[in-house]
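Revision sheet: structure tokens.
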Amino acid sequence: MSTEEKSLNFIEQIIEDDLKNGLGDDKLRFRFPPEPNGYLHIGHASSIALNFGLGLSYNAPVNLRFDDTNPAKEEQEFVDAIKRDVQWLGYQWAEERYASDYFQQLYDWAVVFIRKGKAYVDSQTSEAMAEQKGTPSTEGTDSPYRNRSVEENLDLFERMKNGEFAEGTHILRAKIDMKSTNMLMRDPIMYRILHKHHHRTGDNWCIYPMYDWAHGESDYLEQISHSFCTLEFLPHRELYDWFLDQIYDETKVRPKQREFARRNLSHTVVSKRKLLKLVQDKHVAGWDDPRMSTISGLRRRGYTPASLRNFAEVIGIAKRDNLIDVSRLEACIREDLNKTAPRVMAVLDPVKLVITNYPEGKEEWLDAENNQEDETAGFRKVPFSREIYIEREDFMEDAPAKFFRLSIGREVRLKNAYIIKGESVVKDGDGNITEIHATYDTDSLSGSGTEASQRKVSGTLHWVSIAHAIPAEVRLYDRLFNEEAPDMHKEKDFLEFVNPDSLKVVTGYLEPSLKSARNEEKFQFQRLGYFTVDKDSTEEKPVFNKTVGLKDAWEEKGKKEENAINNSLKEINKYFKVEGDDERLAIEKMIAENIKSVSSFSLLQNSIRKNVNNNKASLLFSNFILKHSDKIRFSDVDADLLEKLYSMSLRSESVFVKKAAIDNLKADFSNSEKFQAEIEKAR
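Predicted:
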């Protein structure tokens, strides 16, 4: 280990203890074992950083081993993508290995298992086998084929290998313990028949090893010292060790499996199956869509290897699964790009501004600093002319006092240029502003040193010269899901939470220095965020992807939604105090608008849960959420909680609470009949 003083995580402590107990430094070897059935995602990035980081810390080799034991789902495309991602992250493996490298050895060992009476061919249906395997609370029963003779098992297993049987007719099972409290030890499957073409071995094999059989044995063959897996493999450790016990030679390193927590990321999914579903159902444009949690998607969006490595270090290694807010990942890329990305100007929602006292036909090339965070970044020239674009939201004709941008009679500075004052506007027939007229202070050029240039004004705006602007397609990406844990609600399909506003495509206008920008080059569009050149970009049609905004807009959104809930609860109390129906209806309308503004399913669900109590205001609020929200259905609420809400509401002393519950029950057909008697009493 490095001599540098630092606290060890529990994984490093395991290694340190093994070294103290006699494991030689030269025996350390790690591995990253992806299955090539999809693209790697952000969770894999943490695992890559862990294993390859340990290799760097201990000066130990790290193998890249593909778990290619299921040809039904695996493709060479995924192998290539995985290798590309690992190298892009900045790591290089010692050896490139495949589980398929060991197919013959695994088969030979399986034959030895059969000869020793430790494996048998089972010919039950999958349904029958599931039934005889028992449950976590009941013991399993032996398969009727468990005591087949060694000779019969050897014959059947060889014929399975030779392709004589259809898929599903036979499997090879380890003979362990059908009464084990660990379900995985109840005669687990070692081989199944698959008549599928393998991307490396072709049609040489008709049987393929299961992961649990191939995993530990592959580790052993490669002399991996430590096999780190996510927590779902903790119950598999006993089986991992049992398989090793049967073949272990004490003169060799015995691999050790240990587990760490999966790090789930909010507002996305990190299941290959669900990522594939997003691709297949065309919610995204492919595995490298910039909204995806895949490494290739993050790369295309503009994330850097350094930001992902830093993210892995920031979240660390834990023993319990937890949900990491995506804002922490966004903070890592902001921190990285703040240091390295050149500052440029682009306008994404343009409105024309004419500087009426600037000479027609005149243009100036002004100095603009490339990156104030980098003293070596230097300056570039940007053109200035009479007609420019500014952002539409940067102008308000009749602005409030705290509007610190351009308005009629108010001054602002144009970045790197002059101070201007709004004078008038031109509108179309519908009253929309099509042109802003302003005047400029001729002595106020930034950096000129004049008294006018040092004058303080209310704000600074970015802009582009219309005559020199480059039109570009700008893809404004946002979070793919509008729910922080879209796949954690058992009663909901995760696809219901897909954010309809996760991509907006606009035509932006860029300063001319961006004409030569190339794929994956990154920039800060001043006052807007960080953007990267997409692979679809050409010189004739530039395409930029929004990587991340300068601030976390979702944090502000979350606060607004929480305030909407809290404000609604305050309004509820007024609801009971007013006397007139019109006032009461106005309050309910206000509460309904607040509820409709909340897009967070979890916030709505938790608000209902917290407010099912004997307080009449709380009960009314829970009923109003069910009545007015279009994000949550009756079936989305736990059945027992919903029954409790209805029971308490119908027994409430408040006629308003009773009425709200009755109104909901009219729409909740699954519960209306159940509460019919109580409804009659409440009326």
